[in-house]
Design goal:
The protein has about 325 residues and is α/β, with parallel strands linked by helices. Helices cover about 30% and strands about 25% of the residues. The structure holds iron/sulfur cluster (SF4) and magnesium ion. One of its GO terms (molecular function) is ATP binding.
Length: about 325
Amino acid sequence: MSNIIEVQHLKKYFNTSSGTLHAVDDVSFGIEEGETLGVVGESGCGKSTLGRVILHLLDSTDGKILYRGEDITQVDREKMSELRKSMQIIFQDPFASLNPRMTVYQTIREPMDIAGGFSKEEIDKRVYELMDTVGLARRLVNAYPHELDGGRRQRVGIARALVLNPKFIVCDEPVSALDVSIQAQILNLMQDIQEATGLTYIFITHDLSVVKYISNNILVMYLGQMVEKAESDALFAAPLHPYTKALLSAVPIPNVHHEKQRIALKGELTSPIDPHDGCRFASRCPYAKEKCFKENPVPEMIGENHMVVCHYVHEINHL
Ligand code: SF4
Ligand code: MG
């Protein structure tokens, strides 16, 4: 399988009054067509920014984003509006992301209006088809967002994202604002749609238990940098980076019987504004040594598909 998306040394910096914020700092990965990459980290780790830069909703500072082999950081506006149909986003809070003055029908059809070239019949057919796909009763077609509960609002957001038949969707915390019972329904729906269409997802979340089942691979980020990437099962079975270990220790996982000691992280958060060299996790890492505060660790492959960014990964894991 070939990579539908490949990100190479991607950086996104923001100038702020207190300095340069390194929101995404040298991130590289590939996603195979039809798979889901979970991107996990605490709020402020740059995962949402990463999603927006990949979709070209924000300009990158440096690096490449290849979509089917073509660098989309270099394409002109016309080509980008063409590509935009293939690449969509589902937002965290469906209430904030839906226009309160637009009905379900108007919301779902709007991307077709913007793209242009569709007849009224084609639009009607597509809107009803998608309402069926996402499990929205057709009688809700003229409802407004405030008349819908959170789960139904997110179904509208999903239908809207699907309306132009995209190949790739960035899902930014799509279930975080929903009740736990609704979360599972929406996750199942997203998986069913993926199976039926071969869609590729980037699934951004702070909640590891959410990405475990939906992701083929998981990328863990900390303050703008990658710390670990592995197949989902491998990551949950044996996280190798101290930060991932701490994150996972806080997740209750059913069917895991061995005693798990919760690792509490102490220490100050390093500032992502004008950061100095060294591992950004060093101020909180229980294994940090002098070198960690001075030199950037570099990505290292442990086995075929497991990437870790830590000076002492071998020592810590007795590899
Ligand atoms: Fe901890 Fe050092 Fe590894 Fe960073 S490089 S995770 S500080 S041991
Ligand atoms: Mg976010």
